[in-house]
# Entry
Amino acid sequence: MAPYETDDSAKAADEADDVRAGRHRAARYVVPVAVVGVAAATIGLVPALASSGDPDLPKVTAQQLIEKIAKSDVQQLSGTVKITTDLGLPDLGGLAGGFASGAVKGDGGSSADPQSKLMELASGTHTLRVAADGPEKGKVSLLDNASEYSVIHNGKDVWGYDSKSNEVYHATAPESAGAKGKAPHDVPATPKDLADEALKSVDDTTSVTVDGTAQVAGRDAYKLVVKPRQSGSTVGAISIAVDAKTGLPLKFTLTPASGGAAVVDAGFTKVDFSRPAASTFAFTPPKGAKVTEGDDHESAGKTPGHRGPDKASPKGDESLRKGDKDLAGLDGVKTIGKGWSTIAEFDTGGKGMPSGTKGSSGNSDVDGFLNSLGDHVTGKFGSGTVFSTRLVNALITDDGKVYAGAVTKAALVKAADAAH
# Structure
C-alpha cells in the first residue's frame, strides 16, 4: 500500500516542528501497563499481523497520529506480548543471565528482584502476560515452560515472585509512581513504552511518516515510521503500529541500517481493553517462600535494585537514541554530535584493553577472550577495540577513553580522532 504521507524536503522543517510539539505532549502520557515493566528495551516479536489484509482506514498525517498517541488514555487492559531480541551477541549458553541472577543473590538479594531478570530478556524469545487497572494496579508475568515470574504493583506495594525458586521480593512504590504510571525497576516492556522512548528522539534530524495500515492482535492500526535523516546511525527505521480506535501503540519494530531481521520488534498477540478482575493484582507470599524487603537492601547498599525508571533501563533502552541532554546530564559523560548520530564520550580513568596483556581485568586470559569479541582499530587517537552489536557500538581506546552510541564503527573512530 502506498504511504499516506511521503518525506519530502519542502515540508521537512514544518513537519519537524509539528512533530516535536506532539512528541512533547506524547511524553506526558504513559499507559498504566508500564507500571511493572520487566522486559528489556531491545526486544522483538514474531510478527502477529493478520492475514486478512490491510484495513481501509481514514487517511491521517504523521502529526495527527502522534497527537493520537498523546491523547491515548487507556486505563484498563490485559493481554499477551511476545518478545524476541536479536542483537547479534555471541551465545554464552545462559552464562549472562546466570551471572546477573547470581550477582544479585550473592549480594544478599533475591532471585525475585526484577533486576535479576533483565539479562534473561536481552536475548531469545519470551512471552509476557500483562494487565493494568489505572496507574495504581498493574501486573507483568514472564512465562517460562515450567515456571513463571511476576511483578505486581497494587497501590503502595510492589511484589516480585519467582515460582521456580519460591522467592519473593517486596518494595514500596514511591509516591510519584502513580502520577507517572511508573514503579520501581520499571523499564520498557510494551510497545507503548518503546514508542515513548522513540518519540523522544523526534527532532529535525528525523523523518516521520505514515506508511499504510495493518492489523495487530485483531485490531485495526496505522503504521507510523520514524527514520534518521543523518548518515552514520545504525538505526534503519522504527515502525509503530498505532491502534486506530484508542491510539495505543500495539506493535514496535526497530530494524538496523545494515538490514536483516529486526533488532527490536515487540507487539501484542492478544489484547482486551475491559477491566481485569481485582484478583489479578492480589498477592500474598506463598507458604515457605523467602521474602526479601527491597527497601532494606537499598538502604544498606547491598543491591543495585530499586533504582528509578530511567537508571533502571538497560543499555538497550539507550540504544533507541535518548536525547543529547539526557546523556549530558550523566556524570563525566560528554556528547559528540546530535540527533541519531550522538556519541557518548567518557574517560574510565584507567587503561583500556590491549590485546595479549593484562588489561582492565588484570588477567591476560580474560582480556584475551574479551578482545576476541571486538575489532582492533587504529587512528590519530592511537589504538583500541570496537565492541559491536547490531545496534550499539562502543570503542574503548588503549588509554581508557570510551566512545559509544547507535552509530557505525567508522563514526566512532572519526569521533575519537576529532577528540584527540
The domain at 324-419 is CATH 3.30.310 (TATA-Binding Protein). DSSP finds eleven helices and 18 strands in the chain.
